[in-house]
Write a structure and sequence with these properties.
about 90 residues; mainly beta; SH3 type barrels; five-stranded antiparallel sheet; 1 helix; about 35% strand
């Protein structure tokens, strides 16, 4: 009888170094991409994905359906994450 060994997927926290220089609350400027030159504050840092969410940068529209019959559906603008290499700390 032959036993087949399955490889486990590596856990991201073991293989990824969490050494991002940019933290939540830092003022940053976008240095690359379609939002180049925009300034903002870091709302959220995602070190496992090397991404940050900056207020007013990389805004996307999402539709939100109403849960109750009386409410209206809405179109919300949400800031999406961008790669940390596209931003620089502002002095």
């Amino acid at each position: 009888m032959v036993k087949i060994l399955k490889k486990k997927a590596p856990r991201s926290d073991l293989w990824h170094k969490n050494n991002m220089k940019i933290k939540k609350g830092d003022s940053v400027i976008v240095i690359a991409g379609s939002n180049k030159g925009k300034k903002g504050k870091v709302i959220k840092a995602i070190p496992t994905l090397d991404r940050v969410v900056v207020e007013g940068v990389n805004m996307r529209k999402k539709s939100h359906k109403s849960k109750k019959g009386g409410d209206q559906s809405q179109i919300l603008e949400i800031a999406m994450p961008i790669h940390v290499s596209n931003v620089k700390k502002q002095d």
